Amino acid sequence: MRAGAGRRAPARAFVVVLALVSSCGAAPVSPDAPVPRADPAWGVVDSTCAPDRLAARVPGVDVAVVEAHWDRLEPTPGVTDAGYAAALRETVGRCAAAGVRVVLGSGLQYPPDWVRALPGALVLDQAGRSPTTGAVDTVFSAAVAAAADDHLRRLVGAVGVEDLVGVRVGTSTAGELGHPGPEASGAAFDSWWAFGDAPQHGIGLAPGQVPAPLPDWIPGQRTWQGRAVTPDDARAWFAWYSGALVRAVAGRAAALRSAGYGGPVHVPAAGRGVLPRDLDAAVAVVLDTAVRDGALRRGLDYVGDLGTLAATVPGAVVDVTGLDDATAVRARRLDPPQDRCTPGDAEALVSGDAALDDWPNQRVTVAAAARAGLPTAGENPGPPGPTTGGDPDSDSEADQVRYAVDYARGCGLSAFLLAFEDDLYTGRSGITPEDYRAAIGR
């Protein structure tokens, strides 16, 4: 779209793309005989909408994720920083004026210091530990949830809705869906983050949430209040624990709607979640176990919960945050390779087949979203390192550009967002706009 074109038209166009592009499994995918389908929308993550970058952008790359910061917008309770609000609106406006559609990062993962002093703000595990990541309880605490909702209304008021084609909402310090990960406690895989007064006893509990079905029971304990804990009890407890995340997102989405925003709500989803077979094994031992990548403790049950997300958050979009992560690299090396989405993935996901263990995170998450009827967007991990989950199998960012674009097409994603804009224009990761142009064929 030409610079200076009207801003409302691209927003509607992007919503149509999200509605019409199907998820993985809707059509055959083969590297030898690709099936014609609409390309994803192309974009970048963490955009500054700087004039020089907009002028140099690759043709067809017309979506930008602009990240807001709660702590900068409202450094003092109830007081909007007018300078920051104006700068954020100007940033979004520059992109929109250039024909670039904006997905706004809500910034909930950056709470101001004063939020940490609110009732129930402290996230607690079963040992009374708090996350070392500085997470606050936006899931269960009524006071924190109310502050988060007020932030979202304040954010929409500052930026306006006419230039937005998406708003990202998560629950973790990474801005993704999930309770704190195992790294947050300093003791890998042993923390369950739902042991404050609000989740356990309903004291100061956020609207829409419900207290724990077995108050004060700790996963792995074989008895509760003098009786044996059954696998059904454990399954119900985990459904409550994982479902609380979706209920929290639904609460934040309702706040956005009340502020006048009616567009897509993007929910960033990391990893693969717990496979049904692994969850069955976990509940059989009353959750006295762990699964790879900490999905159980994070409460990530994409197969079980994305259907609820679809039912409770109109316009939800699942953002796959690790296209071409290390799990995809390992799956690509298998014989036969297991990295690509294929027809029937959504059905195979609940089959219990051991072959699912070889699927990469992206294939599992896209299939789970397809089962729920949700559209998907995605982004590559970014430069391999501790903050992006990098390990010895990770692709360089230059290779991520090529492979992740291919996966976005093959899995029928509605949008691909390159992480990160700075990498394109500063050379810090060895990629250039020409690399992105070559990958998408523009």
From TrEMBL:
<feature type="signal peptide">
    <location>
        <begin position="1"/>
        <end position="26"/>
    </location>
</feature>
<protein>
    <recommendedName>
        <fullName>Glycoside hydrolase family 42 N-terminal domain-containing protein</fullName>
    </recommendedName>
</protein>
<keyword id="KW-0732">Signal</keyword>
<dbReference type="InterPro" id="IPR017853">
    <property type="entry name" value="GH"/>
</dbReference>
<feature type="region of interest" description="Disordered">
    <location>
        <begin position="373"/>
        <end position="397"/>
    </location>
</feature>
